[in-house]
Input
Amino acid sequence: MVKPRIIGPFVTTEPIAATERAFEGHAVVPGKSSLRSVEMFDARAELNQRAEIITAYNSTFRFLRLARIALKPEAQGYAPVHIRIGRAEEAVFYINRGHATVTVNATDYKLGMGDTLYVGLGSDVVVHCEDTEADVSEYRAVDCHTAYPVQLIRHSDIEGTELAAHVGTKRPMSRRTVYKLVDQNVQACRLLFGDTYVEHVGGIGSYPPHFHGPDGPYGLGRDAKEEIYHFRCASVIEGDIPYVLQNCARPGEPVNTYVHLFDDQAINVTPNFHDTIAPATVDFMFVWCLGAFTENERDWARIVTRPGYEDEW
Output
């Protein structure tokens, strides 16, 4: 098992409108003069604010949304952040670093790094920090219709269980632990959620190339899942700018195609094969969130592996 660790600095930015956070990443498609465009997002948090990163207006996501909350009580402008979860929405709150208290319908939940809180339809939420800092991600799914209770998932309780899948034993550089924090252990409408830690600097994540949508046009039918990846990257060389290469090949294409992502950026990997390659000097981890196209059909394992890679798990 790869133990969780902090990767990259505590990053914040001046306020940025959600429309300005979305941009097109481009990759050269091998053998063609055309470029592949993919949806990418500046996912940096704003200090003592709730920042919307991925919305219905700056993305093609049907169900998934992302916001960031960064709190420092000692910094100017600190106040608890009040959030209303819509009547047809569910959410998970995940602690990237630090500690936060998340209050849901007047009940307090104290969370540390990696801890996750599932919050159901129509809930009132307050996020506040009693420590030096709290870095929180808020993932939502919309168009949800079943009310489930609040559920707390401690990262430490998942470690060492079957929900912490240590994979990549065939290829040493792809060894990693996939922590399935919100899986069948949690009642939810659409959301599946977790984080992945790679064993080696210069490692490979989410390998082999796979795709969440084995039916329907382009694979995006009833069994499909939308998916967000949010990366944290750091270089072992001082002053170097770290990045990873994310596969954005489509099912049916004969070759893999990769786009650059830098620290604290997110990407829509829904229509693409997933695998991530880091340069030899870069350490990285990523948080992933899936939203099921069909409510209450949350089988994470319904995937298609790129032809020829079936034995690479």
